[in-house]
Amino acid sequence: MLLVAPMLEASVIVPTRKRPGYLLTALESLARQDLGAGTYEVLVVDDGPSRETRDVAQQVARRTGARIGYVERDGVPGLNSARNTGIRAAESSFIVFVDDDVEAPRQWLRELVDGRRRHSEYQVFGGPIRLRLEGSGLRMCGREPPPLTTLDRGLKDTETHLVWGANMGIERSAFELAGLFDPGVPYGFDEDMWERRLRAAGGRIMYIARAGLIHRRDRDDARLRALIRESYRRGRNLRAQSEYVGHAPSAARELRVLAGCVLHIFRYRCGNGILLSAHSAGRVVECLK
Fold this sequence. Notes:
Layout: E1 10-16, H1 20-31, E2 40-46, H2 51-64, E3 68-72, H3 79-89, E4 94-98, E5 102-103, H4 108-118, E6 124-126, E7 129-133, E8 158-160, E9 167-171, H5 174-178, H6 191-200, E10 205-207, E11 213-217, H7 224-244, H8 251-268, H9 271-288
Helix pairs in contact: 1-2, 7-9, 8-9
């Protein structure tokens, strides 16, 4: 009698580039998912191929028994090329992307797969992304989210226009509607543009409230100087993205936003105002470049 292997419930793609410490934590959490042994795979896509990254993937696979594979990125360097490599290598029809600096609770993947079943008329699914600054005492007033990767659409599943690639599940059929990610985007923030293409082609996006995970910044990266540097970098990249798609605000508006961010620091004695100011300054610099 011929035995046919069951279809995998999900292929979890982890693009990474020379961050073995972050990758180790991410893979250990992904290996402990309670979806069921043999029902999902994890693929590490190395955007800057290194022995250290390969070793981390192989060590976690041996230690946990989880199905963890390693592939090197095809094409030009960059996040989107790494994503496309993962799509081509994945065996499941449900492609799930996470960043290499996440930590996923045991139920995360099961909740995402269950949400896919509940909302079968949708093509893309995402969940909450909660920021954890490890060892940081930075005070945040809570009026504005920090300019780092987070997402919160509330406590109920809801249709949405955007989810982030740090926690995003995609039906393989969606790539027939919207194509693959654009490897020509130099800054890597292609989720927004890809999801616009998907919606324009009739695709729909669902936020799964219980499929949340943690976006980590370790002690070194949670220091104020590192957070300022990352916020500034993201500001420049997002301004470049808005120019690329033709929806960039004027220089005058960018400067008004920067002034408001600086005022926020003193009005609310809020450390997040420093990060918001750095992000806005990055946008201004990119605008005036």
